[in-house]
Structure formats: structure tokens, C-alpha cells
Design brief:
The chain has 293 residues and is an alpha/beta fold. It is built from 9 helices and 10 strands. The longest helix has 18 residues.
């Protein structure tokens, strides 16, 4: 595959580790399957709020190639109403316990709340996927350190209630780079080790279409942190703004962006449509020579 060198990905990051898992790069792209157990998520709200349906869907995603199931009990779409920690725990813990018992797969908890993270980790989750890594309190990071969990730090401007109210940056790429540098320092102070952490630029979280495109075009610049990158663009509204597509029409551009991302330093893709995403990624990896170590 000598011709593949011209489009080969950048150098691999350091390993990503936590209790019960270790990912060493280079390796095939990790696909994280989205499991929303909420009544109001923008794409599939209410479809998997029933426990048996949620676990069945998790099983189908695993069979299709998902290595991580990302369980979320609170919608983070723009203007979403927050829910209490107690309600969120009631939604996610039974699902995590059932998936862990039935499938034994790796589970992440998509939450902003330290109390929910603690309960989810106790129930069998191994990773905290945190959209609110912009917080100042170290409570979440101390819980992650205490449990030796994996952690995804996402950049967000504001909160889901405010993030799309005229987001502004002097330079969005520089702002996200500064954010990651600051967070990695804070995580260390809270007791986390660097290998617990993956980074997410936060497409759609406090960004305009132009901000999102600038970040996607600049993914390779974030490899300097030598941490794995996670990207979530599946079914997002940027494809409505860019192409005028409804939610159920956004699979193809999402997969196109996933391929671009893998060629530019992303190791983890968070997706709704696991099977076509896996097929596309494995084909791309065969062309450029990405394989298991």
C-alpha cells in the first residue's frame, strides 16, 4: 500500500485506559453506539426509554461492531430542559446494569452530573462522557480519579440552554486548544492521570456552522495533545444548516465526516447508525493500512 502514505493519518496518540479497558493506538477506529434513554432527545427521544428495548438496541449495536455503548439519560440538544440527578439516575442505572449483565460490553455514561457519574460507575459503566468539562468545580474529575474511569472531556460554550445563543469566538480553533490545555492541567490536579482522558471538540455545542466547519478542518492540530480524540457528528443540525437535511436524511454526510475525521486524528466515533459507520470505517482503514497492533 505504498500509495496510501499520502493520505495516512497523523501519528497515534497515547493509550486510553480505565478500569476494565485499555485501547492502544494505532488500532481500528472505536465506534461508540449512542443509546438515549430519554423522552426528548433530538433524534430518537422516547424510542428506548423502555428497559427491554434499550438493552435490545444495545445488543444490536454491539453485534454491528460498537465497542462502547454510550448511555444518556438527559437530552443535551439546544434549549433542552435539565432533569434532576435522581431522575437521570433512575433512567440510566437499570439500563447500565442490564447491559452489563447481559452483554458484558464496555459502557460509558453521558452525563454532566457528578452524582449520576458516581451511580453509573457503581452500576458498571467504565467511562464518563462529559459535555460539561468546562465546569470549574473538580467534583466530577475527583470521582473519575477515584474510580479510575475513562473520561471524555468535551468543549462547550455555556450550557445546553444557552450554547446556541449567538456563540462568538475570536478564533474557535485556538479557543478549543486553550481549553484542552487548561483542562488537562486541572484533571491532573484533581488526581486523574493523562491516560484516562480523551478529547472532544464539541461539534454543535456553542458553535455556528462556520465554527463547526473550522474545527473539522483543523482536527489534525489537536493531535499535539497526544490524547485520543472523540468526535460526535451523527445526525447533527449542522447537516440541516449545510444541506437542508432532516434528521433521518443525515446518515451519509455523517459517515463522510467520520471518514474525514479518522484521516485527521480522530480515534473514536460516537454514532447512531453503527452498522453503516463500521462498514465505511473498516473500508477506509483497509485502504490506508490501519489495523490492529
Amino acid at each position: 500500500m505504498s500509495e496510501a502514505a499520502a493520505i495516512s493519518p497523523p501519528p497515534a496518540p497515547g493509550a486510553w485506559r480505565g478500569t476494565g479497558f485499555e485501547f492502544v493506538f494505532p488500532r481500528p477506529t472505536i465506534v461508540m453506539g449512542i443509546l438515549n434513554v430519554t423522552p426528548d432527545s433530538f433524534s430518537d427521544g422516547g424510542r428506548f426509554s423502555d428497559l427491554s428495548k434499550a438493552v435490545d438496541h444495545a445488543e444490536r449495536m454491539c453485534e454491528a461492531g460498537a465497542e462502547i455503548i454510550d448511555v444518556g439519560g438527559e437530552s443535551t440538544r439546544p434549549n433542552a430542559e435539565p432533569v434532576s440527578a435522581a431522575d437521570e439516575i433512575a433512567r440510566v442505572v437499570p439500563v447500565i446494569e442490564a447491559i452489563r449483565s447481559r452483554l458484558g460490553t464496555l459502557i460509558s455514561i453521558d452525563t454532566q452530573k457528578p452524582a449520576v457519574a458516581r451511580a453509573a460507575l457503581a452500576a458498571g459503566a467504565s467511562i464518563v462522557n462529559d459535555i460539561a468539562a468546562n465546569r470549574e468545580s473538580p467534583a466530577m474529575w475527583e470521582i473519575v480519579a477515584e474510580n479510575r474511569a475513562g473520561y471524555v472531556a468535551m468543549h462547550m460554550l455555556g450550557t445546553p440552554q444557552t450554547m446556541q445563543v449567538e456563540p462568538r469566538y475570536d478564533d474557535v480553533v485556538a479557543a478549543v486548544k486553550d481549553f484542552f490545555a487548561d483542562r488537562l492541567t486541572r484533571f491532573k490536579a484533581a488526581g486523574m492521570t493523562e491516560d484516562q482522558t480523551a478529547l472532544d471538540v464539541g461539534i454543535g455545542f456553542g458553535k455556528t456552522l462556520e465554527h463547526n466547519l473550522q474545527l473539522l478542518a483543523s482536527l489534525r492540530t489537536f493531535t499535539n495533545f497526544q490524547r485520543p480524540q472523540l468526535l460526535g457528528v451523527s445526525r447533527k443540525s449542522l447537516f440541516s444548516k449545510l444541506l437542508g437535511l432532516e434528521v433521518d436524511e443525515r446518515q451519509a454526510p455523517g459517515i463522510a465526516v467520520a471518514g474525514w475525521a479518522v484521516l485527521n486524528g480522530v480515534q473514536i466515533l460516537r454514532v447512531h447508525d453503527v452498522s453503516p459507520s463500521v462498514h465505511a470505517l473498516r473500508t477506509l482503514e483497509a485502504i490506508v493500512g490501519i489495523s490492529a497492533t
